[in-house]
Model the fold of this input.
Amino acid sequence: MFRRRSAPLLMALALGPLAFLGLPHAAAAALSVEGAPQVALRNGAPVTVVMHPESDLRSALRKLPNVVDEGPSVHLSIERVKAPGGSTIRVFINLPTATADTPTSDFHYVGDMTSFEDPAAGSPGDDFLLDASRAFKRLKKGDRLLLGDNVSVTLVLAPGSTVADASIPVERIVLSVETAAGQ
Done:
């Protein structure tokens, strides 16, 4: 008859060898860098945040495939955005000269963020998660991605999307790359 204390020991003996079979890991590793805007976003005054990724993140960006739908995921998290309802913010990577007139067909364009209602008093603001994979891979494929030390994220208010004197604070921007384990 088995005693209670022997059951965990038997399970460890039975399952222990499975740990050495070298099965592939399904878990992904995330590499990230963050930055914070120094000023609020305003009409006619885009905000650019320059981030300085560590070497492992730069390496992951260099290894992105030229095929847009393959490889790791690249995300931009724009956090604690306090935008009035109806405001639309356009996001560009490595284009610090982006303005409200920069077309969304530009290779550097990542996507839009729209606030559907005014933030509640005392709320921290909204968080937005954008898939930047396609933009980074398009830039790399077209040899337009300069993979030096910095990555810049530029936020631009879409024309006519908010009142002229709007001031939109953004607390933090995080760039992350989800790579498969072992990459």
Notes: The two ends are 48 Å apart (CA to CA). Residues 1-27 have pLDDT under 50 and may be disordered.
